[in-house]
Design brief:
With 345 residues, this protein is of the alpha+beta class. It has 13 helices and 10 strands. The radius of gyration is 26 Å and the shape is elongated.
């Protein structure tokens, strides 16, 4: 059970958290006394900070140092003490502009939004797209990628684009490839990728004599291209922002663990998984994260939708010492904006 704080304890915790967010340094009682207009003496504040340490909300990294908030202290602050800032009009206008101008597909929309969100927050931004399988197909094209490879390009109704490379050694001519592409495209329109795979497999089970060589080749290429389901795309912007955080820059092993996590798609998917089905902001602090070995980061994420379909999640990843009063409204606004833009594509 979370210990409830009285007014003085809550005020001191809030001031310690906000000073630590700003400075990344342990906070002393004299600093808090000054912030409170010296209403309470440093000695009184030291006693309150000792009580907060006893309840698990603060800790003292060194005997002679001030206190810093623990994960539990940040959780109490977010749940009960946080005052969200309102986004500046310039920030809202910039986010609106980048999601509607100069982009051709839904993939471009989320990439542009994640890049801007990373720049505005100075944290790493991650966007997960995990619901391609729910989108109906607009078109399918087959293009020669190399002498032994063919690129299948699938354009989905929401404007999403999927690419699949297929190994091919039959030496098809350009004209034959165009005919195969047309045949698959006619078969695919209106179906989802899983539905198209089922239809192709059903056609392949029928009497082979019904199909000439090109049609059989079309079914075979389609079957190869759709053999594996795609777990989702992950777009990451602003990895370099991690290097600017003092708590990471001064600890190489900690930094190495975090940067390595960014290279593992499965890790990123786990970190943002809780936000996938929800419009509500999800905040995971340190040890609350579902991935072991990353106790020093926080994730602020929200799901976004295309109509009634949950398409994925967008989030910011940074130190536990994130400025949640600004980060939370940034993520929330961007997720709602993505949902609105994608609904009309």
């Amino acid at each position: 059970m979370t210990p409830t704080l009285d007014d003085r304890g809550a005020q001191v915790l809030r001031l310690v958290v906000e000073d630590y967010i700003e400075t990344a340094e342990p906070v002393g009682s004299r600093t808090i006394s000054k912030k409170m207009g010296q209403v309470l003496s440093p000695a009184t504040i030291r006693n309150i900070m000792a009580d907060l340490e006893e309840t698990g909300y603060l800790c003292q990294p060194h005997t002679s140092a001030g206190r810093i908030p623990t994960g539990a202290g940040f959780r109490y602050y977010i749940n009960y003490l946080l005052a969200r800032r309102e986004l500046a009009r310039s920030e809202r206008d910039l986010l609106q502009k980048v999601t509607v101008e100069g982009v051709s597909g839904a993939d471009d929309v989320v990439r542009h939004a994640s890049r801007l969100l990373s720049n505005l927050s100075r944290h790493a931004c991650v966007v997960v797209v995990s619901r391609y399988s729910h989108q109906a197909l607009r078109s399918i094209s087959l293009l020669r990628a190399s002498s032994d490879r063919i690129l299948l390009v699938a354009v989905l109704q929401g404007g999403w684009v999927q690419h699949r490379l297929i190994e091919e050694d039959a030496g098809l001519t350009t004209e034959e490839l165009e005919k195969i592409s047309g045949y698959l495209n006619e078969m695919a329109v209106g179906l989802t990728l899983p539905q198209l795979r089922v239809r192709i497999l059903n056609e392949m089970r029928k009497e082979k004599a019904r199909y000439d060589r090109l049609m059989r080749k079309a079914l075979l290429l389609g079957s190869k291209a759709l053999a594996d389901s795609v777990p989702g795309e992950v777009y990451i912007e602003g990895r370099a922002n991690i290097l600017e955080q003092p708590e990471f820059a001064e600890d190489f092993q900690k930094l190495k663990r975090i940067l390595h996590a960014f290279e593992e798609k499965s890790v990123i998917l786990q970190l943002l998984d809780a936000a996938l089905e929800s419009d509500a902001i999800q905040v995971s602090i340190g040890s609350e994260n579902p991935v072991e070995g990353l106790p020093d980061i926080s994730v602020v994420a929200s799901g976004y939708h295309q109509g009634e379909t949950a398409m994925g999640s967008i989030g910011l990843i940074g130190p536990i010492r994130m400025d949640y009063s600004r980060v939370i409204p940034l993520v929330e606004y961007t997720a709602h904006l993505l949902s609105s833009v994608l609904e009309h594509r």
